[in-house]
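INPUT
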Amino acid sequence: AQSVTQLGSHVSVSEGALVLLRCNYSSSVPPYLFWYVQYPNQGLQLLLKYTSAATLVKGINGFEAEFKKSETSFHLTKPSAHMSDAAEYFCALKSSGDKLTFGTGTRLAVRP
Amino acid sequence: GAGVSQSPRYKVAKRGQDVALRCDPISGHVSLFWYQQALGQGPEFLTYFQNEAQLDKSGLPSDRFFAERPEGSVSTLKIQRTQQEDSAVYLCASSLAVVGGSGTDTQYFGPGTRLTVL
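OUTPUT
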């Protein structure tokens, strides 16, 4: 079975600090991986996706993620947090039939 | 162009009532997905369509849940005899490509319908 694990349901960082949100996956086939962000009362917005073209993926708003097969990880990072980054972040794996399997999410708080 | 829209945005139902949730996908998008997001959880797959064909409904939690997309565009998720455990946000997503294609196609999500069953 395919699954996604996000370590840390809540992460708090200071404005300007590094953001690191962790995602590990389990998949029997080469995975397609995604990071989505969800602001309050809004739908999910795609930040970036891994499609096997390059292991380091750059996304919107200064975020990037690195696919590490040996560690079955796809952690999301941003060098310097901004207040507007406060939101919930979901890692997702595309499984059979193109449906997405999501992690339980990480809520990011940014302290001034 | 316009994104995925869903209506209503909020729905309160008494236990036992039937509800219908609407999704308008991005024009021209072939694939349409429904997900259920319980409070504090990630979205969970319910069902998906390729045009008007429902290719997978394995995530529907019970036979009280029914989805349709009769003309390959707008989709409706219907829940009969609602129960308190049905309270959740229902998300709709659409993507341009055929299911089972390259696999890299992006799903675009609507804002969701928050269903509260009293």
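end of record. The mean pLDDT of chain B is 93.
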